[in-house]
Design brief:
The complex is a heterodimer of chains A (471) and B (454). Chain A contains 16 helices and 18 strands. In chain A, 35% of the residues lie in helices and 20% in strands. With 454 residues, chain B is of the alpha+beta class. The chains are: A alpha+beta (471), B alpha+beta (454). At the A-B interface, strand 9, helix 7, helix 8 and helix 16 of A face strand 5, strand 9, helix 8, strand 11 and helix 11 of B.
Chain lengths: 471, 454
Amino acid sequence: MEKEKIINELEKIVGKDDVLTSEMELQIYGYDASLIKGKPDFVVIPESAAEVSQIARFAHQNQILLIARGAGTSLSGGPVPNQGGIVMLMTRMNRILEIDLENQRVVVEPGAITLDIKTEVAKLGYLYQPDPASEKATTIGGNLAENSGGPLCFKYGVTSNHVLGAEVVLADGQIITIGGKSLDNPGFDLLGVITGSEGTLAIATKIILRIMPKNEAVKTLLAIFNTVEDGANTVSGIVKAGMVPATLEMMDNLAINAVEAFYKIGLPIDAAAMLLIELDGLQDGLGRLAEHVVAICKANNVRDVKLAKTAAERDQLWMARKGAFGATGRLRPNYLVNDGTVPRTKLPETLRRVGEIGKKYDVQIANVFHAGDGNLHPLVLFDERDKDELARVHKAAFEIMQLCIEMGGTITGEHGIGVEKLAALNLQFCSEDLAALANVKKTFDPDGILNPGKLNLIASEACGAKEIAYA
Amino acid sequence: MHKTDNPVDIFREIVGDAHVVADPDKLKPLTVDGVIPGLMVSPGTIAETSRVMAAAHGLGLAVLPTGSGTKMTLGGIPKRADVLLSTKRMNGYADYDIANLTIEVECGATVHEVQAKLGAEGEGYFLPLDPPHSQGATIGGVVATNSNGPRRLLYGGLRDIILGNTAVLANGDIVHAGGKVMKNVASYDLTKLLIGSLGALGLICRTTFRIYLKPEAAATLFLSFANLKEAETFFHKVIPSFYYPAALELMNAQTVAACQGTVPLSGAYVVAVGLEGIVEAVERQIADMTEMGRTAGALGTFSLKGDGHRGFWVAYGDFTDELIKSHPDLIVLKSNFAISRQTQVMEAAAQAVKKAGGECALACHAGSGILTTAILTGGEAGVKKEAIVKLIEEMTGEAVKNDGNLIVEKAPRFIKEKVSVWGKIGADISLARGLKEQFDPTGIINPGRYVGGI
C-alpha cells in the first residue's frame, strides 16, 4: 500500500491531527533510553480501545508492522521501531478509570504514568507496590510489557505479581478480556505470558492492578562499608536472620562519588559500598528488627549506619539511591546499563568478576543494584563518539551476561531482551526452549506484526541451560 | 528405535519392567471419570519421562499425568486414557539452596515431605504453600492444578512463589522456563503459563520455589458469629487495615464439624485468622482483632498456638477428604470472585444448595475471594441430578456476576456430562486452543480434560 494511502486510512481512524509523519516527529519516536535507534514510518495516537483495535486490524490486513509505545523509558530497545512500521503512542490513554478500594484493585489505561497511579492511591491510604526507577515518566502499559521491577521487589514481587487482569487488543484487532479483579481465573495464565512479552503478543488497553493498604510503620537505614564484601555479607546476614526487608539496595564507590558530586548529601567518597535497607510492617517490634539490622551491619565491619528518624530524613536517604543512575550518567556522555540477575549468594563473586571485566576491557563500571534479589545494574560508562571504546563496552556487557548465566542467573532481571540482548538469548536458552517460546509467538501473532525484531526466537545449537546433577 | 511396536514392551524398555502396570485388575481402581487407563507407566527421571512422552507421541497414545491422585477428579471427562503417567518416582531435589532461599523440587515429591525436610534444616525453613490434601498433594499436582491454600493471603499464590518450571512437552522435548532468581524477564514467562495448565502444554517435572525461614511466632485467632452480616463487618475492618493476617478464613458449621474437633469454638459461622511474623506483631494482632471481632458482634473468640494452631490448619486443609469418608459422592466446587463479595457469594451458595434440597460445607479464603463448596448429598441417591446441574449453573452465574468464575473440582461423571466443569468459557479460549495446537498438536496430554475440552 502507498504511504499516502496508509496515512489516509490511519487518519480515518484517529483523525488528522493524531497521525504524525514529519521527519522530526518520526525521529522523536525512533529511540528509547537505550543506545538502540530506529525510525518509524508513521506515528499514530489512539484515544480508545476501539481505535487501537481498528489500527491493529488495519495493520494486520495490510501486513504493516505495529509497535506500541509508552514513554520510551525502556533500557533495552523494547519500543524502538528498528524495522520501521507504525508506532502507536499510548500516552493519551492515560486515565485512572476506577479505584476500587473494597476489592483492592485499580483499573487504569496503559498510558497512565506509574507514579501518578501510586500518588492517587496513596491519597486514599493504599500502595501500588512496583516502583521502577523511571516511575516519574514510565507508563503502566510499558511496565506491563517489560514486567518492570524496582527496589521493592524483594518483598513485593515484580509488575507481573500485581497485574491481575487486562483488556487487550490482539494482533488481528480482536479485543478480549483476560483475568479480572478476582484471583485464580480458570485457564492458561495468558496474562502472565503477555506481561513481560515486550509488546510482541498483544497490546493492553485496560489494566487491572492490585493495590494494598499502607503499612503502619517503615524503618529506613543507610549503612556505609569499606569493602563491597562487607556490604554483601550484611545483605546475606539480614536475609539469613529471616527478615524480608522491603528494600535492600546497594551502590559501589563510583556510584557513591557520582551521587555525592551531584547531590552533596554528605556521603563519604572513599567508601566502597552503601546499603539502603527498608523494613516495613506494624510498628510493634519493628524497632527491635532495625536494631538487629544495625547489629548485623556492625558484625560486618560497618563504617557508619544511620536510621532515618523523620520522613524528611528517609527521603534524603532514598535520594541517594533514586538519583544514582542520573548522577552516574553525568560522569561520561553515555552509559549502558546491564541488568543480569544472580542468586543472592553469588553476589560477592559476581561483583568481583564484573570489576575484572571492567579492567580487561578498560571501561569504567559503576554498580547500583537490588542486592536482596540479586539484580545487578552495572553501568558501563563511555563516550559513543569513541568507536573503539564503544566496541569494548559491548564486549564487556556481553561478558557480564555470560557471567550471570555461569552464576546460575539470568541475562535480564527487569529491563527486557529488547534489541540489546538478542544475541545473548542463546546463553540462557537451548534450542528446545527457544522452540517452545516461539510457539507462544506463533499462537498470538503468526504474521509477526507486533513489535518485530524483539525476542527473535531463532533456534540455535548453543545451549546455556544445563541438566543439573542430582544432589 | 524400539525393537518392538508393542506399547507395553516399549515402555518397559524405557522405565524397566517393574514400573509398567498392565494388569487390568490393578488399573481398574485408577479409573478417571469412569475411563479405565490402558497402562500405568512410572518413569524415574526426567530423561525417562522425555522418552516415555516421545514414545507415546509416536504411538499416538493419550497420556494422563498423575501423582497421588488427589486431583484426578478435576477437569472434563478424558476422551482417552491410554497411559496413566505416574510421577511418584520422581521425588528428589534438582537444586537445594537454603542460603539462597530457593529449592528446585521434582514433581512427585509431596508438599508434606518437602515441608518436613525444610523444617528440619537449621533453624527451620518452609515452603509458603499449604494446599488441600495435606498428606497426598504432590508438587507437580499442586502446580498443574494451581492448588493454593489459605496462607496465600500473606505469601502469595503459586504464580507469586514459583521462580521456574521444567516441563516435558508432548514430543518429549525438555523445556526450561525461568530459573532460581526472583527477577527474570528473559523472553516469555512460560513458568506462569504452565501453572494451572493441568499439564495440557507439557508435563511439569521440576519446579523452583522461594522458601522462607520459619516465622518467630504463629497463632490462630478464632471468632464465632451468629450470622454472615457480622462476619462481614469484621472482614470490612480487617481487610483494609495495615494488619497482615497470613490467612483469613470463614467456615460454616458443617465445615467446622469436618475439622475433626480442632476448632475451639462453635457457631453458625466461625472465622479463623492465621497470624505469623515477629512476636510483637502477632500478639498485637491477636489483641486488636479480638477487639474488632467483639465490636462486630462476635459471640466468642479464642486463640491457639503450638500444636493446636498447627493441627487446625491441617484439618482445615483436609476437610473435604474427611467428608468424602462418609460421603463418597461429595461434589466439590471452587468459586473465585472479587474479595469484597465473600459473604454475598457464600450466602448465595448456601441458598442454592438448600433450594436443591442438599446440605453443604462452606470454606472461604475471605481475604483472597475463593470459596470451596462441598455438597454433602450429591450422588444419584440424594438430590436429583437436575437440581445439582441447576445449582452449579446458578453458582457459576453468581461467581461470574462478581468478577469471577467457578470450577467443578469433584463430581460424579453423570453430573460432569451436563455442566461446564471449568465454568464460563471466555473469549480467550481461541488463544488457549492455539497454544494447545502449538505445544501438543496431536492432543495426547489429558485430552478433553482442560478448559473448553482442550
